[in-house]
Specification:
Blueprint: E1 3-11, H1 15-27, E2 33-36, E3 53-54, H2 61-79, E4 92-96, H3 98-103, H4 105-113, E5 118-122, H5 123-129, H6 141-145, E6 152-156, E7 160-161, H7 164-178, E8 182-184, E9 189-196, E10 213-220, E11 225-233, H8 239-243, E12 252-263, H9 268-271, E13 284-286, E14 293-297, E15 302-306, H10 337-351, E16 362-371, E17 378-380, E18 385-386, E19 388-392, H11 398-413, E20 418-420, E21 426-428
Parallel strand pairs: 1-2, 1-11, 2-8, 4-13, 10-18, 11-19
Antiparallel strand pairs: 3-7, 4-6, 5-6, 9-10, 10-11, 12-15, 12-16, 13-14, 14-15, 17-19, 20-21
Helix pairs in contact: 1-7, 1-11, 2-11
């Protein structure tokens, strides 16, 4: 078995893994740091399958700090460092009926108190700004589909989109390599290897229960052994495959989410809109039912459609010993068209009749690593094991919090109590851990 040794090995080259690798090496340039991933390039797993949006419209202080500092860093990278991330401030628009708006009043007031740039639109504003949108229903489908009238909109001004490939590869990976970082792609990790701390005693099954333990190395499926002082696991939905066999709970579960594209010249009238942003298109719109959303892609007259209820869609549990390499269910990026046909289209075509009878032109799927506690990232050192840090649970907002998470993980690696986020904001590292977790409740949930 061939063996290589490093100071730090990050397993996972998605947005969390590459942001963590960059910030660790930027602050510790003499370290020998390597990123390992089973994919052929950085950010080509679930990071690439996302809608790639950013926003700061959160009532939670933790959510707001993580997302706003990350957004500001991305703007700095594009505007000051000159790396084109295709950042576009297309805005977000949450559509609500009267009941939803009333239930979110406290969250709206909280965001305004925190200087989040939001605007409240009433029904007349919305009808004037988006003529193709139906805001009132009196047909037979109202009761069947649970359709809600649109009475208000919450417009997030400092929200938009970016290119996930460009931030992951053109910035984080590129800068990491400039600092001397190494990458090893197309390598699937077989397992994390537990070893006793100190002298090996030759006991069968060592380390046994009473011995202090560490992750001494990782084994790859092609027979390589990689040793390191510290391993940082940032594999997102695949985390449980490596952690559960050594008795560590990632506190996340994989949930498959699909995206669908409709592309037709008929959408030009919807997409061409001068009322919201410099791109002169509609915002990223979240509809009043089950968080169904529409992302505008003006240049080719298309929309991406996603969201929908998660109840009835199972979490995916897999174990690498039960399938061949090509059969891992977490590698499946095929979308289920029935999700669009029955979960989304029936509702959306009522709100946007321009979508009626329009076929799908593309579809794909990825997996969220869903935090089962509070739907926020988790950055921690597991109890009872040295040499391991876990960075996971983007829960569908990983890209928009990635830079902050990378800085927090780097601070944890360095043993620092506080991470300095972009702009100088200090964030207590333990707040995203498990022992002293301190994540305030998010109230702005539709």
């Amino acid at each position: 078995m061939t063996e290589t040794k490093h100071d730090v090995v990050i397993i996972g080259a998605g947005i969390f893994g590459m942001a963590t690798a960059y910030h660790i090496l930027k602050n510790n340039e003499n370290l020998k740091v390597m990123v390992v991933d089973k994919a052929a390039s950085a950010g080509s797993g679930n990071t690439a399958q996302s809608a790639a949006m950013y926003r700061d419209t959160f009532s939670s202080e933790v959510n707001l700090v993580l997302s706003s500092t990350t957004r500001d860093f991305f703007r700095y990278v594009q505007n000051e460092l000159g790396v084109n991330l295709s950042l576009k401030g297309i805005t977000y628009l949450w559509l609500m009926d009267r009941v939803q708006f009333e239930s979110n009043k406290h969250a709206v007031e909280s965001m305004l108190d925190k200087n989040v740039r939001i605007e409240i639109l009433d029904k007349d504003d919305i009808k004037k700004k988006i003529p193709d949108l139906v805001t009132d229903f009196d047909n037979e489908n109202v009761e069947l589909l649970g359709l809600k009238n649109i009475d208000y909109g919450i417009l997030g001004r400092d929200c938009g989109e970016l290119d996930s490939d460009k931030i992951t590869r053109d910035f984080y990976e590129n800068e990491f390599k400039k600092l001397g970082g190494e990458t090893l792609y197309s390598i699937r990790i077989k397992n994390l290897v537990l070893e006793p701390i100190g002298e090996k005693l030759g006991i069968p099954g060592e380390p046994v229960g009473w011995q202090d333990k560490k992750i001494g190395s990782i084994e790859t499926q092609d027979g390589k052994k990689i040793t390191s002082e510290i391993f940082i696991l940032a594999t997102g939905p695949w985390a449980n495959e490596l952690l559960l066999p050594i008795g560590v709970d990632s506190h996340s579960l994989p949930l498959k989410k699909s995206l669908f594209r409709v592309q037709t010249p008929r959408l030009a009238s919807l997409l061409d809109n001068k009322n919201f942003n410099e791109e002169e298109t509609i915002p990223f719109i979240i509809f009043p039912i089950h968080g169904i959303y529409v992302k505008p892609v003006k240049y080719n007259n298309s929309v991406w459609i996603g969201g929908g209820s998660t109840i009835g869609h199972p979490y995916v549990i897999s174990h690498p010993d039960t399938f061949e390499k090509e059969e891992n269910p977490l590698d499946d990026t095929q979308a289920n068209p029935r999700v669009y046909e029955y979960d989304q289209y029936l509702v959306l075509s009522e709100y946007l009749p321009v979508l009626k009878n329009q076929p799908l032109t593309n579809q794909w799927a990825g997996y969220y690593a869903m935090n089962t506690m509070d739907k926020n990232p988790v950055v921690f050192k597991p109890n009872g094991i040295k040499g391991l840090i876990v960075v996971t649970s983007g829960s569908g907002s990983g890209i928009m919090k990635a830079d902050a998470v990378g800085r927090i993980a780097a601070a944890l690696y360095c043993g620092e109590e506080y991470a300095k986020l972009f702009g100088g904001k200090e964030f207590k590292v333990s707040r995203l851990g498990l022992k002293a977790r301190d994540v305030d409740k998010e109230d702005f949930v539709i």
